[in-house]
Amino acid sequence: MNNVPLVKVAMPPREKLLPALESVLYSGMIAEGEYVYAFEEQFASKFALSNVLATSSGTAALHISMLLAGVGAGDEVITTSMTAEPTNTTILQVGAHPVFADVDPLTGNLSVESVEASITPRTKAICVVHYAGYPADLAGLRAVADRHGIALIEDCAHALGATFNGGAVGSFGDFAIFSFQAIKHMTAIDGGMLVMRDPNKMDLAKRLRWFGLRKGVPRTEVDITVPGFKYNMNNVTAVIGLQQLAGIDDLIAAHKSNGRYYDQALANIPGLTPSAIVSGADPSYWLYTLLSDDSDAVERCLLAIGVSASKLHRPNHMHSVFEPFRRPLPGLEEFYRKLVHIPCGWWVSPEKREQIAGALAKG
């Protein structure tokens, strides 16, 4: 029986990727250079974004975004526990405190009402994750951020190609990040992209990316005024990203096609509920999110036909490192109890998705 994984690495065609890699590997310039800058430009154009900066990882981009937002020791960042851990370990790295707001139990995304109720005089930013590729209520969160004069940071690691009210995710926040880690919609082996609403932040962002130095200025002439990091993307990673952009429309379209199929096919099965989609959101379905009265039974049902399914993530507040920041999260508890992700990507054929839906319909 062929196993259908929950996530899978997508790479460009060998005949396109390998010559491109060879050209950069033997070019004499494998660190940050023209390929990185071309990738930034083409990524911004493809996804209707402005003021972008390529980084070594999505986590690096998030770290820089926190610093650009002025988050520091003792500050608070309102965030979600329903995410991959780097979203919140990054908050700890800058010395700030994660304040876990509750989620909507039908979506797993931040509850606007809980976010607003969590704001204190120490709140510096809201960090919203578009969980599993389903956009959060960006209109509501943007309004809260504006009303209180705090930054909105979008963690779009799961949501490449998703939109809200016709605008790309990543274009609503003061800052946003994307991830090109191995199993995302688009991988460059690893890497990330930082998006800034204010173009005046770009110079500092570039210096934070590269030890506090300005690229292109002789080392004997620069003056470091702020400590930076080794967060730059390299040309080898960037050339993979450039090749991936050539086929990314088809990959994202496959995720969306499968997600929309499941939305219809699974809607009326007793005991199952597809994740709700907020008004104005167009998900990119990195994973398909299903809510079940018995999530373990769903996993067993699909395993019997060779299909992987799981909760994938562990709510961050369950980790010991976040114990000081635990608080009641009844919406998240309900969501996580019912949560089960099923495969939704480009590797799920029309025949296989019909088999998955049929198996679930039979119970």
Overview of the molecule:
The chain has 363 residues and is an alpha/beta fold. It contains twelve helices and 13 strands. The chain has helices spanning 14-25, 34-46, 58-68, 86-93, 112-117, 138-148, 202-209, 235-245, 248-265, 295-303, 330-338, 350-362; strands at residues 52-55, 76-79, 97-100, 123-129, 151-155, 163-164, 167-168, 175-179, 192-196, 272-274, 281-282, 288-292, 339-342. The chain has a seven-stranded mixed sheet, with helices on both faces.
First-last Cα distance: 20 Å
CATH class of the largest domain: Alpha Beta
| Sheet with the most strands, sense and barrel status | 7 strands, mixed
Give the low-pLDDT segments.
none
The topology string of helices and strands comes to: HHEHEHEHEHEEEEEHHHEEEHHEH
Tell me the CATH superfamily of the largest domain.
Answer: Type I PLP-dependent aspartate aminotransferase-like (Major domain)
Strand order of the largest sheet: 1-9-8-5-4-2-3
CATH architectural designation of the largest domain: 3-Layer(aba) Sandwich
- Individual helix count: 12
Helix amount, in percent? 25-40%
Task: Compute the average pLDDT.
Answer: 97
Tally the beta strands.
Answer: 13
Report Rg.
21 Å
**Do you know the CATH topology of the largest domain?**
Aspartate Aminotransferase, domain 2
By secondary-structure content and strand pairing, the structural class works out as: alpha/beta
Estimate what percentage of residues fall within beta strands: 5-15%
Provide the domain count.
2
Overall 3D form: globular
